[in-house]
Write a structure and sequence with these properties.
Strand order of the largest sheet: 1-2-3-5-8-9-10-13
Mean pLDDT: 92
Number of helices: 14
Shape: elongated
Largest sheet: 8 strands, parallel, barrel
CATH superfamily of the largest domain: Luciferase-like domain
Structural class: alpha/beta
CATH architecture of the largest domain: Alpha-Beta Barrel
Order of helices and strands: EHEHEEHEHHEEEHEHEEHHHEHEHHH
Oligomer: single chain
Radius of gyration: 27 Å
Strand content: 5-15%
Length: 395
């Protein structure tokens, strides 16, 4: 078991089928984060997407500004701002404004932009996105530090640019870079000593690359700073839906999982490709579970999945459930509640002393019970003697 106090949260793209009302969907997303805040989850991250219909938060900053007013403790992250879509000074200013508005609860997640359809609408060549992300990130970090930046590239110009607001957080808000399969995220995390968001930790390709990308980050960090990365800044993302029994969990997800699968298969860049290997179950839900891509089961199954990730990866700081709306809203909320009641305490070691206490009572039950029985018997004996003495005096 990891020695790091594992944190727990959500990565909310979100995923909403195109046959439901988007206004209701967005308000349910906010209600869900309020619920997670009340339950004690530590983190929530929100995506940026502009096409394909399902992932309908186009500005994670706007969403964070709204939900920050409805929550008290949960930290709120951009998951992620697609840096090639934005002028870097504008990104820096928006994040620093949120840093002050949330009094340090905002986290800045940065990525290159996942959906090729987004880049196509903006006229961006996908082959330029990783380099542009790296360019923009470097500038934003310099602006966070209070530097004045003059820089001209083929896609932005900065003339004596500086931010109005210096960070509320010291030295500046936590910065995380997205990582899927390629080592680009790990390289940037290692170069700048940033957090790493592994978005496909339970997918076959993502899990295969998981420890390698973290290894890349550590190698670069040791080369530049002479020390390894802190595993507390590593976050792994994976989908789950849990209920009291596996049968109930499987029944719950019939509500929306096939729409989610259809989206990933036909549209999303991370959709499954090629024919399934021989022996794979014909039911796509069973195939996904068997491959380890998701948990649809009980709190015990969720614990086993996280321990599998710890065995593969080593220590990491936070597990983020991928928000998915496989079940209806009430059952979705129930799943997050069951996780917080039974999964999170296991990794936080919340109940270690309680377990030790009950084990001690069980192991020493005979002695403790005997002492209690003897004490009761002595009380009866004392009471009888006192009654006899009072009767004698009365006579």
């Amino acid at each position: 078991m990891s020695q790091i106090k594992l944190r727990h949260g959500i990565f909310l793209a979100p995923f909403h089928p195109v046959d439901e009302d988007p206004t209701i969907a967005l308000h349910q997303d906010m209600e869900l984060i309020e619920w997670l805040d009340k339950l004690g989850y530590e983190e929530a991250w929100f995506g940026e997407h502009h096409s394909a219909g399902f992932e309908i938060i186009s500005s994670p900053e706007v969403f964070i500004a709204a939900i920050a007013e409805r929550t008290k403790q949960i930290r709120l992250g951009t998951g992620v701002i697609s840096l090639p879509y934005h002028q870097p000074l504008m990104v820096a200013n928006r994040i620093l404004q949120l840093d002050h508005m949330t009094k340090g609860r905002v986290m800045f997640g940065a990525g290159m932009g996942l959906l090729p359809s987004d880049a196509s609408m903006l006229g961006i060549d996908p082959s330029t996105q990783r380099d542009r992300m790296a360019q923009s990130l470097d500038v934003i970090l310099r602006l966070f530090k209070g530097e004045t930046v003059t820089e001209k590239t083929d896609w932005y110009t900065l003339n004596n640019a500086r931010v109005h607001l210096l960070p509320y957080s010291k030295p500046y808000p936590e910065v995380a870079v997205a990582s899927a399969v390629t080592p680009s995220g790990g390289r940037l995390a290692g170069k700048y000593d940033l957090s790493l968001l592994c978005l496909t930790a339970t997918e076959v390709q993502g899990m295969d690359a998981l420890d390698y990308n973290w290894q890349v980050a550590n190698e670069i960090s040791r080369e530049l700073r002479g020390k390894s990365m802190n595993p507390e800044v590593l976050r792994l993302v994976g989908p789950m839906h849990i209920a009291e029994t596996r049968e109930k969990a499987m029944a719950n997800v019939q509500f929306g999982i096939y729409k989610w699968m259809d989206y990933f298969d036909r549209i999303n860049l991370l959709g499954r490709e090629g024919a399934p290997p021989p022996g794979t179950p014909t039911d796509p839900i069973e195939a996904m579970i068997e491959a380890g891509g998701a948990v649809i089961g009980t709190p015990a199954d969720a614990i086993a999945q996280i321990e599998k990730l710890q065995k593969k990866q080593g220590e990491f700081g936070c597990f983020l459930q991928m928000g998915h709306n496989w079940a209806d809203f009430d059952q979705t909320k129930k799943s997050y509640e069951l996780y917080q009641r039974f999964v999170a305490p296991y990794f936080r070691k919340t109940n270690v002393n309680r377990e030790n206490s009950i084990d001690w009572v069980k192991s020493d039950r005979d002695r403790l019970s005997s002492g209690a029985r003897n004490a009761a018997a002595e009380m009866f004996k004392k009471h009888t003697a006192e009654q006899a003495a009072r009767t004698k005096v009365a006579e």
